[in-house]
Amino acid sequence: MLPRAQALISEAALTGNLTALARRGGARLLLPVKADAYGHGLEAVARVAARHPDVWGFGVAVPQEAVTLAALGLGKPVLLLTPPALEEVGLLADLGVRLPVASLAEADALPPHARAHLKVDTGMNRLGARPDEAVAVGLRLAERGVLEGAYTHFATADEPDLSFAHEQLSRFRRVLEALPPVLAHAANGGGVLSFGPLPGLALARPGLAAYGYPPAHLRDRARLTPVMTLRARVTHVHAVHPGETVSYGGLWRATRETTVATVGFGYADGYPRGATGRAQVLVAGERRPVLGRICMDQCMVDVTGLEVRPGDWVEAWGADEITVSDVAAWGGTVEYEVLTGVGARVKRVPVPEEVTAGG
């Protein structure tokens, strides 16, 4: 069946972003590919990134993602960033998945062939051992011969005020000073762009920035290009007469003769319903308003004056005219939620196109 909606994934943009972030951070990358690579498609993204010389490995959020990556055989380490269940530890260790550890009990439960990354909670208060507990856990892991890395997570590195991020970094460094040498990592995308190289930290973990969306106030720190273009086909074209309404609730009423195209994507595909009344799309290179309430599977667009037929493509977002940032703002949310909400019925299509990125 022909897909009604496609997410075009630019391999060149992704590669350029990885190069730019590794250069800015002065470190190799532990690329987060959780949540289906932020909606971009886990396998497609991982295969491209695995060929990049600056990518050390991948970070995932749940064991199934780690198992999927291991099955691809890409030859790159995989770190599970959140704790597994005890009964999952053995299988994950057998697959070579690096495991997060934040307690003595977790350290003692690891099989001898496991490789662990000590998770230190320096102020995020989500996961990890507090600094005064982390040293003992790290030393236990070292005694057992399974300690490979240590990491923490910045809570505010994407904010203009970096005072708390500096405090977190100081707490983390004090833990590292008490441990044998490890692969240390802390910087998310905001951290990479805010701090640049962090001496003693061999890896960085830029997430959304790797997919082309840095914090707005940090966009001048590296040249990044959005990786995904979302487009969908026109399924129907019809006339709406003055006084008639469009979509649920009759929110939009025609004041003139209007040509309306129905487009085959909606909020079940990742186009936020909250963008109703504000959203625009690109039709034949022109910005056109989405009319009325966005539906689960469809939305309607004013195409008056354009030559539009069923089967034509309409662009919801991309790298230039309309971006995910625009759609997120219209929907009252953030880029993360829009991208990770792109549904499974949207076909991911890797595109090895030539783009300017990573300069």
UniProtKB/TrEMBL annotation:
Top-level taxon of the source organism: Bacteria
Pfam families attached to this UniProt entry: Ala_racemase_C (PF00842), Ala_racemase_N (PF01168)
CDD domains named among the record's database cross-references: PLPDE_III_AR (cd00430)
Enzyme Commission number: 5.1.1.1
Domain Alanine racemase C-terminal positions: 227-351
SMART domains per the UniProt record, alphabetical: Ala_racemase_C (SM01005)
Signal sequence, start to end: none
Record keywords, A-Z: Isomerase, Pyridoxal phosphate
Uppermost EC category: isomerase
The keyword Isomerase is annotated on this UniProt entry: yes
Active-site residue numbers: K34, Y248
Residues holding substrate: R126, M296
Pathway: Amino-acid biosynthesis; D-alanine biosynthesis; D-alanine from L-alanine: step 1/1
Residues bearing the modification N6-(pyridoxal phosphate)lysine: K34
Catalyzed reactions per annotation: L-alanine = D-alanine
Cofactor: pyridoxal 5'-phosphate
PANTHER family found in the cross-reference section: ALANINE RACEMASE, ALANINE RACEMASE, CATABOLIC-RELATED
Function of the molecule: Catalyzes the interconversion of L-alanine and D-alanine. May also act on other amino acids.
UniProt family annotation: Belongs to the alanine racemase family.
Protein name: Alanine racemase
Record organism: Deinococcus aetherius
